[in-house]
Amino acid sequence: MKKYTPISIGDIAKALNVSPSTVSRALKNHPDISEATCRKVQEYAREAGYRPNVLALGLKHRRSMTIGIIIPEIVHHFFSSLLSGIEDLAYGKGYRVMICQSNEDYLREVINVKALMDHRVDGLLVSISKSTLDYNHFREVLSHEIPIVFMDRICDELPTDRVVTNDYEGARMMVKHLLKRGCRSILHLAGPQHLCVGRERYRGYQQALREYRVPLRDELILRCDTPAKIDKSAHQLLSLVDEIDGIFAVNDFSAVAAMRLLQKNGYTIPGQIAVAGFGDDPLASLVKPMLTTVEQRGYDMGREAARLLINRLAGEGETAYQTKVFPAFLKVRDSA
Amino acid sequence: MKKYTPISIGDIAKALNVSPSTVSRALKNHPDISEATCRKVQEYAREAGYRPNVLALGLKHRRSMTIGIIIPEIVHHFFSSLLSGIEDLAYGKGYRVMICQSNEDYLREVINVKALMDHRVDGLLVSISKSTLDYNHFREVLSHEIPIVFMDRICDELPTDRVVTNDYEGARMMVKHLLKRGCRSILHLAGPQHLCVGRERYRGYQQALREYRVPLRDELILRCDTPAKIDKSAHQLLSLVDEIDGIFAVNDFSAVAAMRLLQKNGYTIPGQIAVAGFGDDPLASLVKPMLTTVEQRGYDMGREAARLLINRLAGEGETAYQTKVFPAFLKVRDSA
DNA sequence: TTTATTTCCGCAAACGATTGCGGTATGGTT
DNA sequence: AACCATACCGCAATCGTTTGCGGAAATAAA
Predict the structure, then answer these.
(1) Burial of A287 (C-beta count, 10 Å sphere; 0-12/13-18/19+)
(2) Which of A25, A171, A290, B187 has the fewest Cβ atoms within 10 Å of its own Cβ atom?
């Protein structure tokens, strides 16, 4: 197996006794080049397996045909669905993707942004980390005229396209569903309120209660959006459990964790307490009872985000920024 | 927000009235450059936010400091764990990753290989697609002296490093566990036999039976490695169910699908039929009864694969190829 | 003062591709 | 015969960085 370096335009030129410029033009059927030469060059290129060096192209054109992606954690099903959607669409349009995970860490996110900028990505697809409180790293990106599309965990204050689920409406519908079932004391396991996702779902919760004229009680709001935090707050949660008849969690993981905790302590679901989640993670249909939740189309959102970004890259940004809102669908199962 | 193009070495040179070569050397403390000049250049570079253009670097050095990854599907937990492990390690060593999914499609895999080669990746991390039967695209990569590390779905016939779980041993242990429980007619839901993973797990199954002097019966081997295929073979499976007392599935998804099918038809698990899977997907501990399975450390395997690849890239390939075998651990839960 | 040695820096080519501009044939017009 | 247009192609600069080599200036040795 002998070493075989990729062939360049110069190599073709030498072999065919023409100049590199002629080869370059011949390969793209430039009218200046005779048909005969074009054929000769293209044939040779094909047989020699010529493939343009994207690094050289990127250097010349100052764009790399790659899209940078930053997401909190690849292993979460929602994010890997996003990725999958992005990847499928981007590849179809000739773009490659470069993926980073922030691990919910602000510093890592900043480093990721730098790394992707170093690689001269043409645009960024971002879902913000939980610990991110300022957006200067993104502002910097935008100042370089690199477009960003935020997905799900968006940033309100930056001029970008966005792709989100209708969190407000989804939460509102879900809580109304709980109310319709007869729940009147609904605990909300809330996400971080600096993230729009957490805020919007909380707003939906509030609105539903208002519509049913159920008073809002602050002590029924618990900042708990991971199983770990549920465990830590187990005591507090159990002390509340006798005065509630429903739980609306900001995501499926904490919903399931809460469900487990309650079941372990002898409560029946949905008999004594109804439980609802958000996101329709695969685990939702696997647990007993099956979790009632709100569907969130990760794959489609990813595709749409990639589409928005690539359109903007093509259109040179003349159009106004848009926020694509995906409708939320109730998935009523057994837990509520 | 005004446009701000990234600054180059030439810009620094002009600003400081020195040559680009001097700047380049000063930035890396080359002994030819006076301490004063070094300081001056580095200071200016820092303040101007200079960041080297990796495209130009890649063009010059003929390497891009990026690793190409091809996996079947990002949304499978095992693969996203792999990714996560790779990403964490690679970033620590200054490498970026470029990820492609083959969607279990041979043609897509070939295209992915080409795309990654076009991007002049320094090495490849690959988990082969199910529909891949020939390896010429990988051979081509190796002929360019681009190293590959195969992960989990490896290729025997190519000279590369590999990272696998001890599939044989895991399967053997699991089937022996079933036998110890008293099972004597164990159905095997097998994977494609052209994949080593499928072959090795089948071998483990056979060996365990031999050790217990239980005759091997061909009619108890079903090529079924996805829920969809289980559904399609439901009839056949149900026709066998009365003469079996255990199922060993090549992965957790088909194990759970089979479990569901049996439960729906009134069979109790593990009472009448014990069911075991492979992989310890998150779903394993969510289903009822909780699935007994074999643990597979995706994250660690990913890290190890990245480590092997980066070492080889650094060491210029003087060492012999190695196959890192991760031990398999039984996760005995409730289903068997 | 001449020669040898350091010290410090710049020129220019190279990586692979693109592109404006200019140049040489060839043929056709007057 | 002199002129113009057209068809076809090459030169050289450019993107940003690296690096071998050579050269100037300063210092040391003879």
Answers:
(1) buried
(2) A290
A119 vs B144: CB contact, 8 Å cut-off?
no
Statement to judge: residues B192 and B283 lie in one domain: yes
For the segment B264-279, the average pLDDT, to the nearest whole number, is 96
Distances (CA, A) of A237 to A191, A220, A269, B137: 16, 9, 15, 56
Query: C-alpha angle A15/A17/A18, rounded to 5°?
Result: 115
Q: What is the DSSP pairing of strand B293-295 with strand B329-331?
A: antiparallel
How confident is the model at residue A243, as a pLDDT?
Answer: 93
Instruction: Confirm whether A265 is domain-assigned.
Output: yes
The per-residue pLDDT of chain B, averaged, comes to 95
Rounded CA-CA distance A104/A117 in Å is 20
- A65 and A135 co-located in one domain: yes
**Do the chains contact at B74 and A97, CB–CB below 8 Å?**
no
Q: Does one domain contain both A149 and A46?
A: no
The most distant pair of C-alpha atoms in chain B lies apart, rounded to whole Å, by 87
Cα–Cα nearest to A295, from A165, A154, A199, A201: A165
Domain assignment of residue B39, yes or no? yes
Residue B1 has pLDDT above 50, yes or no: no
**In this predicted model, what pLDDT tens digit does every residue of B41-100 receive, in sequence order?**
999 999 999 999 999 999 999 989 999 999 999 999 999 999 999 999 999 999 999 999
Of the pLDDT bands very low, low, confident and very high (cuts 50, 70, 90), residue B3 is low
Unique residue bearing structure tokens 């450390």: B297
Distance (Å, whole) CA B148 – CA B139: 10
Q: Of the candidates B74, B77, B98, which has its C-beta nearest A83's C-beta?
A: B74
What is residue B318's predicted lDDT score, i.e. its pLDDT? 73
- Nearest CA among A259, A261, A297, A263 for reference residue A277: A259
C-alpha distance from B257 to closest chain A C-alpha (Å) = 11
Q: Say whether both B220 and B171 belong to one domain.
A: yes
Residue B2 predicted with pLDDT over 70: no
Residues of chain A where predicted confidence (pLDDT) is lower than 50: 1-2
Nearest chain B Cα distance for residue A95, angstroms: 10
- Say how many Å lie between the first and final Cα of chain B, rounded: 63
**8 Å CB contact of A144 and B5:** yes
Whose CA is closest to A261, among A283, A229, A223, A295?
A229
Q: What are phi and psi of B259, to 5 degrees?
A: -60, -45
Q: List bases, strand C, within 7 Å of protein CB.
A: 7-12, 14-22
What per-residue confidence (pLDDT) applies to A2?
Answer: 45
In the 8-state DSSP scheme, what is residue B213? T
Q: For chain A, how many helices (H) and strands (E)?
A: 13, 12
B4 in any annotated domain: no
User: Can you give the distance from the CA of residue A29 to the C1' of nucleotide D12 in angstroms?
Assistant: 22
> In angstroms, rounded to a whole number, what is the distance separating the alpha carbons of residues B24 and B244?
72
Q: Would you place residue B118 in the very low, low, confident or very high pLDDT band (cuts 50, 70, 90)? A: very high
Best of B4, B54, B109, B144 to substitute, by most chain A Cβ atoms within 10 angstroms, is: B54
Q: Could you list the residue range(s) of the whole structural domain that residue A192 is in?
A: 167-295
Is the separation of the CB atoms in A211 and A318 below 8 Å?
no
Who touches strand C, with Cβ under 7 Å? A 5-6, 8-10, 20-21, 24-25, 27-28, 32, 50-53, 56-57, 59-61; B 17-22, 31-37, 56, 59-60, 62
In terms of C-beta density within 10 A (0-12 exposed, 13-18 middle, 19 or more buried), how is residue A47 classed?
Answer: exposed
Sign of the torsion formed by the C-alpha atoms of B87, B93, B96 and B100: negative
